[in-house]
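Researcher: I'm preparing a figure for a lab meeting and need a structural model of a single chain. I don't have an experimental structure, so a prediction will have to do for now. The sequence is pasted below. Please return the structure as tokens so I can convert it later.
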Amino acid sequence: MSAVETLISDTDVTDESVSADGCHPLFRDIPSTVEFNKLRKRLLRLTRQSLDDFSMVTPGERWLVGLSGGKDSYALLAVLLELKWRGLLPVDILACNLDQGQPNFPKHILPDFLNKYGIAHRIEYQDTYSIVTDKVPENQTYCALCSRLRRGNLYRVAREEGCSALVLGHHREDILETFFMNLFHGGRLASMPPKLVNDEGDLKVLRPFSYVAEEDLVKFADLMQFPIIPCDLCGSQDGLQRNAMKAMLTDIEKRMPGRKETMIRALGNIRPSHMLDRNLFDFAGLMISSDK
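Model: Understood. Here is the structure written out token by token.
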């Protein structure tokens, strides 16, 4: 077991340890209710489990945390800062918002929020909105190209700031929806990995919320009273395929509670010999014993 794994494993997050009198400044104005403490404890535990399971942490690194102004990225920043404050995350954290030039984007909200709590940050302006609206036909959604341009700029900022990882707020439902989109529309079994290295090989992309339920993030953002910025300022909505996957998963969970948790466990329990991929399993070399 590594030193980081020992650090993460040996310190339990109890209800008492997350009380309001000992916490990161982000949590000091939040009512200390039983509901909130249980939710906060669960988010901390699941995030630490993901950091541990996928060997995300190298002590002394600097992480760039993408902050869009949505519930997921606010929650990610808060949980990571809390873990760092408790000595459970030995990395430097820099929050970064990429202002992409969408109409009516409230430029003051994120700087005001970050400055209020003394959070190190960088606000980067790049007018990718004009590029997207120029390249994408009016009747199509902007999300795919917008996302690629955003990721490229965040990679650049990470390099400029000496960061070794870009950390994103994708959660359990994002991973499951992507899996089913690839299954139904891409003809492959693939999803969002909790940890990957970019094509250039110089940056990690980390998703510490891989085990966290979106429902919990909705509740957490509401209780924390984050100043949420809508994700559809450009007038575009997410693709119909992803919306259909979300609706399907919601229906399955409603009819069979607990299925989402089972599905996310299944993505970490793959048996190549029981699939059909000849690149992952040597079916040609699978022979019965000659001495039988």
